[in-house]
Amino acid sequence: MRRQVPLILCFAFGIVMALTEFSPHRFSQWLNKEVIDWTLVIGPFALVLAIATLIQTHWTRIRRRSEYWQYSFLVFIGMIVMVVIGIPLGQRHPVFVWLFRYVQVPMDATMFSLLAFFIASAAYRAFRARTLEATLLLAAALIVMIGNAPVGDLIWNTIIPFGDNLPSAARQWILDNPNLSARRGIILGISLGVISQSIRIILGIERSYLGGVEGD
Amino acid sequence: MWELIGIWLAALLTLCIFSFLYRDNPFYRFAEHLFVGVSVGYGIVLTVHQGLIPFAWNPLRDAFTQQQWIGLVKIIPICIGALFFARLFPAHGWLIRYPIAILIGVGSGLAIPNVMRADIFEQVLGTLTPFAQIHAGELDPFQIFGAILMLLGVISTLTYFFFSVEHRGVVGGVSKIGIVFLMIGFGSAFGNTVMGRVSLLIQRVDFLLADWLHLI
Q: CA–CA separation, A98 vs A95, rounded Å?
């Protein structure tokens, strides 16, 4: 009951979804869409659990007066303001859009832009052309970076009398050929792994998602 | 008026986050915690408005107000999703396996045909199609070189990840070529990531100098 029923459910839903994807029959298509809709209803409940954990973590920090506990109130304030405005008024309400545009988007973009400094600093310390492989990595990265910036082409065209816009052309060639072939190799490998793992899960060979111990 | 307040708020939050470049400080911690709260709140609102309301609430409402009784079937995924809360009661914690098993079963079942179609067949097709064009005489020598390079890159990258035979002799040589392609691929990915972050940085600085301070 505790392990067998989930295994049967996993098998049944997995087989149904795999088969209905191939069948053009009207009932099959309806079933496929209906089950996907079910997952869109079931999934958010997992989010509720995640939010409960977040609230519990920050509430514990406040209760125990842990280091920087005062900031935990900001987490609650931010979350409550967005929820209180967004859920009853809707995600297209001007107030919610204002909060998204002037609070969330700037902080999101700035957080990610901070990484530019840290990536540059890490690259400066880690990038050394000691071997052929490291040199290739460094050269590819430099060409892609120079080719991505319009100033790369401008400098090249000003200094070198031949090969107009060579940096951006070289970047595009690297992205379309050696980079794409490596990515395709990786994607093919990952895909074969995903398919074999999915078959193992559906057949009940892979059961780690059930957690706990055998006989539980 | 509200736009002006929004620009000032966004600028101050941007500066709070950039202050981390000096070191960890109260302004950064303020923005960081607010960002977590606002992002979680935004996620909740999106989940409710794009998941629960259209796929659970509306069908149930229509069932009772317009006698579309088929909508009552949505009670099943709601009950299954509610089993996630069993996690909060240790004695009944095992019930959480039911919704997890269904979500994993559906995901695995969908993955098999879709990954096969998009990530295996399409990638192999993309690698081999240029050879049909070579046969039809549609490609110039540079494009033919690119097509051969692509095939060599895909095969050698796959060989590098093929661990069922020892990497010696021909296999070892081909896998070394695979490393070359992988390094160029990783270098390109690194270059693109850096330039993506730099673009965000430029956008934030542009916001501060143009929209906020009107200096440019």
A: 5
H helices of chain B, in order, are 2-18, 26-47, 58-65, 75-82, 97-115, 122-135, 141-160, 169-206
Cα-Cα-Cα-Cα torsion B142, B143, B145, B149, nearest 10 degrees, comes to 140
The answer to whether residue B10 is domain-embedded is yes
Q: Looking at the complex, does the CB of residue A193 fall below 8 Å from at least one CB of chain B?
A: no
CA distance A158 to chain B (A): 22
| Among A16, A172, A180, the residue to mutate for chain B (most B Cβ within 10 A) | A180
Q: Please report the DSSP string for B94-122 in residue order.
A: GGGHHHHHHHHHHHHHHHHHHHIIIIIIH
Residue B27 pLDDT > 90:
yes
H or E stretch at A214: none
CB-based contact B153 A177, cutoff 8 Å: yes
In a domain, B74, yes or no: no
pLDDT reported for residue A214: 45
Binary contact (A86, B111; C-beta < 8 A): no
Helices (H), A23-176: 26-63, 72-89, 94-99, 105-126, 132-148, 150-159, 166-176
Structural domain includes residue B137: no
Calculate mean pLDDT across residues B118-127: 95
CB-CB contact of A178 with B153 (8 Å): yes
Number of domains observed in the structure of chain B: 1
Residue B167 placed within a domain: no
Chain A 109-168, residues with CB within 8 Å of chain B CB atoms: 109-117, 119-120, 123, 132-134, 136-145, 148-149
Domain span at residue B44? 1-67
Kindly determine whether residue B51 and residue A41, on different chains, have CB atoms separated by under 8 Å: yes
**Residue B188 pLDDT greater than 70, yes or no:** yes
Tens-digit pLDDT profile for residues B165-176:
999 999 999 999
Among the listed residues A49, A94, B8, A36, the one whose alpha carbon sits nearest the alpha carbon of residue A57: A49
**Which chain A residues in 53-82 lie under 8 Å from chain B, judged by CB atoms?**
54, 68, 71-72, 74-82
Residue A15's H or E segment, with its range, is: helix A4-22
The residue-averaged pLDDT of B71-78 equals: 93
- Chain-centre distance of CA A11, in angstroms? 27
Residues B149/A184, Cβ–Cβ less than 8 Å: no
User: Of A82, A109, A107, A108, nearest to A96 (Cα)?
Assistant: A82
The pLDDT of A124-140, averaged and rounded, is: 88
